[in-house]
Each structure stands twice: as structure tokens, then as C-alpha cells.
Amino acid sequence: MIRNVRFLRWAAGKSFTTGKSTTTTAAVSLSQWNAGIIAQPSSGIATCSIKPISSGLNAKHGAGFSIAHRQIHTKGERELVEFLAEEIVAEKKASPSGTIPTSLNGFAITCNKADVELTKSSEREKITISFNVNHTVDMEGEEAEATENKPEFSAMKSRPQFEVDIVRGGTTLSFTCSYLPGEAQEGEYNDVFGIDEVTIFQGEWNDKVYAVAGDVLDGYLYDLLMNFLEEKGISNEFAEKMSDFASAYEHAKYVELLEAISKFTVEKK
């Protein structure tokens, strides 16, 4: 996503739009669809239900962003709605050209507003990865300079902290993980994410459960735990794909928020 377009467009004194290609695996274009509520198909696997976004604006806005003045009570409201009308169009054009999948590397994806959960089960264990997309976006790479001749913008990427729970019987081995800053240089191998905390408990977690921070673990033990996660499918490659998914989903929720604010502003009091 390229939400920083908002500030840079204002600072440059003119409108720019751009896009970002994201490679994911499903068949519904994110520029045409918006993530919404949970669907529970007959198979029993919950997936992210996505609903269509109209290509134009709300009928209340009309063509050319005209506003029904009888529904606008103040100058501030009118300016807000006019800006939102243009911003919504720009954000939809800037939506990743990829798609929002309902599964990722064998993990079924369930979405509930800002919460996302990925699950995979076998006869031996159940693995659950959970995260929240709120406040998870940051600039990808160095911020590009916007000029009249070079309207380029850095993409925004969601890199949420995530929990990994591996449940066997009534026992849960739980990891708290975060994405690491920086990118691997050519010829180097860097982990995409790291372990912040490890704990194990019976039944439900509570504040009395002991946990150890990842940065005080024995170095060899830390590496073994990272290998353990990789064997469970939570590898660097998987983490990158999960970040791509989170970015696309967060952007869809952002556009949904803009539309809700616009609708709230123009509704009759």
C-alpha cells in the first residue's frame, strides 16, 4: 500500500497515484474486492469473506465528487468529504494488484475485523498463528522523494507481531515473534523474523505462566527453536508471504475505514 501518498500529494501541491504489485495466490482482484466478515462454508473451514467495492463513489457523492450540500452542515464537513472522495479513488487505484487469499501454505485464514488467524491441524497437533493488523504498517525501504518529474512513493508494508501456538493435547508451546528490520545483503542470509518470547503452559494461558525472552536464550537453543518453527512451516519465505497478505488486508480495511468516515459525514443527522 502507498498511504504516504496522502501527505506527499499535499506537500507537492498536486495529485499523484501509483501502484504496487504484490504476488499472492487467489482469484479475486483486490482492486475490485474488499475484505469483510467471516464466512463459514459447509466444509467447516472459516475463510475471509470479501465483498465487492463499487468502481465509482457512493451515489451521495455523485459524478465528479459533487456533494449533496443539504446533507453537509459545516464547511469542515464539506472539505472532509471532498477530500475523502478523491482519496478513496486514489487508494483503490493504488491497491495491490494481487489478491487476498483464503489460505496460505496449507494454513486456513480466518479474518475478524483487524484480527487475522491462520490454522493448520494434523492428528498430532494444531498450529495457530494470530496477529492484528492495527498499527502495523511502515515504510518499505527508503522514502522516495516526490517531485513534479518523479512522482515516486515508497510502499507501506504491514509487518505485525504474531503469536504461534502449537497445541498437543492440553499443552501449548507458544512463541511471540516479530519481523526484523533491514534486508539481507547479496550473499548473506538473515532471518526475516525473530523470537521475542517462548512459553509453555497447560490449558489456558494466564499471567502466572513463566515466559523467557528470546534475546536471553542460549544461542544454540534459539537456533534450534527457529529450526523447529521452520519444520512446522513457519519459515522466512512463509513470513514474507504472511507480510504480503497482512499488507493487502490492512489496505482493504483502510479503504473501508475511509468509506465509513465519508458515509458518516454525509448522513442526515
TrEMBL record:
Highest rank taxon of the organism: Eukaryota
Family annotation (Pfam families): MAM33 (PF02330)
Any Gene Ontology biological process: cytosolic ribosome assembly
Entry GO terms, CC: mitochondrial matrix
Family per similarity comment: Belongs to the MAM33 family.
Stored PANTHER family: COMPLEMENT COMPONENT 1, COMPLEMENT COMPONENT 1 Q SUBCOMPONENT-BINDING PROTEIN, MITOCHONDRIAL
Protein name (database record): Complement component 1 Q subcomponent-binding protein, mitochondrial
Species per Swiss-Prot/TrEMBL record: Anopheles epiroticus
